Amino acid sequence: MPEIEHRVEMSHIHKSFDGVVALHDVNFSVKPGEIHALVGENGAGKSTLIRILSGALQPDKGEIKLKGKKVDITKPNDGLKNGISVIYQEFALFQHLTVAENIFIDEFRENRGFIDWKSIKRRAQEFLNEVGFGNINVNARVRDLSVAYQQVVEICKALTRNASVLVLDEPTAVLTNKEVERLFELIENLKNKGVSIVYISHRLDEIFRISDRITVLKDGRYVDTVETSSTDAGQLVNLMIGRDLKTYFPERTSKMGKTVLSAEHIRAGMAVKDISFNVREGEVLGLSGLVGAGRTEAMRAILGVDKLDSGKVVLNGKEIKIKSPQHAYQLGIGFLPEDRKTQGVLLKMPILYNITISCLGNFCKMGWINRKQETQYANKLSQELAIKAASLNNKVASLSGGNQQKVAIAKLLASNCKVLILDEPTRGVDVGAKIEIFKIINSMVEKKNAVIIISSEMTEIIGLCDRAIVIREGRSVGELQKHELSELNLIKYSMGVNEDAS
User: Fold this and answer.
1) Any residues with CB less than 8 A from the CB of 424 and at least 6 apart, and which?
2) How much of the chain exceeds pLDDT 90, in percent?
3) 427 phi and psi, to 5 degrees?
């Protein structure tokens, strides 16, 4: 029997929701044993396409072939039976059950009689050994595992279903660098065993490192499929957003002024041992370092979220002690947390409420809120930040990740703070939304605000910041001026190899 060319073929897929076109004439195919990246801006149609492949949605038009034969996948169970497993960012695991129980959860649903626990544990261990993670204890409760190990359990569960097509949706979003390396080893191992991998990510460096081919979607339409080895980041960005990579970091014309905020020898808990920095008006200061270096923890202590053990914080020449984030707002210091869904926005509340919650007093008179003024102001901010929404009365949860982040930034700007601390401001957003957020940051500093950015992406630190402080193991270990910012220098300082770093 001749080997099939494509394990999955999706042809001329159309899908609309209440008259809004989500997919228009989209084609997508995956070969056996290949890693195929699916990329595009938020709202490009990636999630809709994958939900159709898995059976969670049905297309309005188009057809799906598996191993060359047309199939009807009308519900998720059809997808599973056909060897299609999707691992989303939010895992479908039972936290209180063990690793072995989660891996073979299907058997418990089907077999309600005698359970051979010895066999279950032995087979679970075999799956873990097969994917290279035999060190995971099959008796451990899933809730006690790291995020990376929970992801491995999800993958093993998929393999028990004889998955021949594995879809990974932003699999490295919450992993450390070391965990990412282990995941890539696992993916390569699965590829070598003939599993087809669909890899969805906004991280271009990962896509170029791991994928064989890349399919680009834009505004619900198929753009192109390219061989990874024959394209580069500039060409890929151009396909995704229709502009050149040279415009990735827009130019700005801000002029730096006096020092606005400084922190001296900050210590807090086990993570922050001795961190110092200062930021001037009209400046973007970057805090760089490896995940877990203590950057976020230092900011939480400065802002009164966590206890500040020692050190000095000076605002406009006066030493201050910030009691809480609300107190920080009152002092003119705003904070954008890294986890927008749990800390940055109120997902179940309207966009309007999210934007104006930090400045409602501006629209109040005699205890009444002037709704007309409030709406006009929110509309103005929404337009300035290019928030894409049908109505400000829509819930934030209905927006793409990039637009949710822009709502969180709008709330920050509405507070009229002069010092803005942005923790991973572009995490989990697409390339187009990143560029828009960069423009917003530029407009902040052009208005003489001071901006501090915590970012794990070195290209962001290099392209966006005027200066950077490198944090390593809870200490500030180096300061790099604009002309000194390079991946080599940032790596040297963050890893402790900082001789001749200039």
Assistant:
1) 338, 454, 455, 456
2) 39
3) -65, 130
Whether 245 has a pLDDT exceeding 70, the answer reads no
- Cα→Cα distances 374→65, 121, 147, 334, 371, Å: 52, 59, 41, 20, 5
pLDDT digits (tens, 9 = 90+) for 54-111: 999 999 999 999 988 999 898 888 888 898 988 887 778 898 999 999 998 887 766 6
- The string of pLDDT tens digits covering residues 114-161 is 778 898 899 999 888 887 788 889 999 998 888 778 888 988 888 888
How far apart are the C-alpha atoms of 72 and 57, rounded to whole Å? 12
Residue the block writes with tokens 């505004």? 219
Ramachandran assignment for 121, one of left (phi > 0), alpha (psi -120 to 50 degrees), beta (any other): alpha
| Dihedral in degrees, nearest 10, Cα atoms 224, 227, 232, 238 | 0
Domains of the chain: 8-247 (3.40.50.300), 258-332+420-429+454-502 (3.40.50.300)
Among 444, 187, 474, 95, residue whose Cα is nearest residue 310: 474
- To which residue do tokens 């707002």 refer? 329
**Core vs surface per residue 151-179: b (16+ CB within 10 A) or e:** bbbbbbbbbbeebbbbbbbbbbebbbeeb
The sign of the dihedral angle between the CA atoms of 38, 42, 47, 48 is negative
pLDDT tens profile 263-312: 999 999 988 999 999 999 999 999 998 777 899 999 999 999 899 999 99
Longest dimension (CA), the chain: 81
- Do the strands 284-288 and 165-169 form a parallel or antiparallel pair, or are they unpaired? unpaired
What pTM value is reported for the model?
0.61
Per the CB < 8 A criterion, the answer to whether 467 and 481 are in contact is yes
| Beta carbons within 10 angstroms of residue 43's beta carbon | 22
CA separation, residue 231 to residues 177, 205, 213, 248 (Å) = 25, 13, 10, 18
Round to whole Å and give the CA distance between 190 and 185: 9
Helix, coil or strand: residue 210: helix
Residue 215 scores a pLDDT above 50: yes
Q: State the pLDDT at residue 372.
A: 86
